[in-house]
Design a protein that fits this description.
globular, alpha+beta, YaeB-like fold, 27% strand, 124 residues, five-stranded mixed beta sheet
Length: 124
């Protein structure tokens, strides 16, 4: 197993709000899985997977007891993982409103990033 160092950042307050709503045990499990995401080159599918038909959107997978949680994220610049919304999964299918929110947030993230990177025009 090869190790590396990814950086994890948050876009908006969605992930933080989700995290703070969880019990201490669930928070510990989230931290454990985020350490794997941060350090392991080939993250096992049990913890991380690409969403089908979603341009660059991934889900971090967390199981705690009989509870299943998902955190949507994307990669930026190769080694940066951007966290978006998280939720408890209560059915086999991922709720469409959660996917829709994640797609909105990924678009918003890159639009804001591009805006910040634009060079201001100089007046002569």
């Amino acid at each position: 197993m090869r190790f590396l160092r990814r950086i994890i950042i948050f876009h908006g307050e969605y992930f933080v709000n989700f995290y703070l709503e969880q019990t201490a045990g669930i928070q510990e499990k989230i931290e454990y899985v985020l350490r794997i995401v941060r350090q392991v080159e080939h993250i096992p599918k049990k913890f991380f997977d690409h969403l089908i038909d979603s341009d660059g959107l991934f889900e971090i997978r967390i199981e705690f007891g009989s509870n299943i949680f998902r955190i949507f994220c994307c990669f930026d610049e190769g080694n940066i993982v951007v966290l978006f919304n998280g939720f408890q999964k209560k059915t086999q299918k991922t709720p469409k409103e959660q996917i829709k929110l994640a797609k909105k947030l990924i678009k918003e993230y890159f639009e804001l990033k591009n805006k910040r990177n634009e060079k201001p025009k100089r007046n002569n």
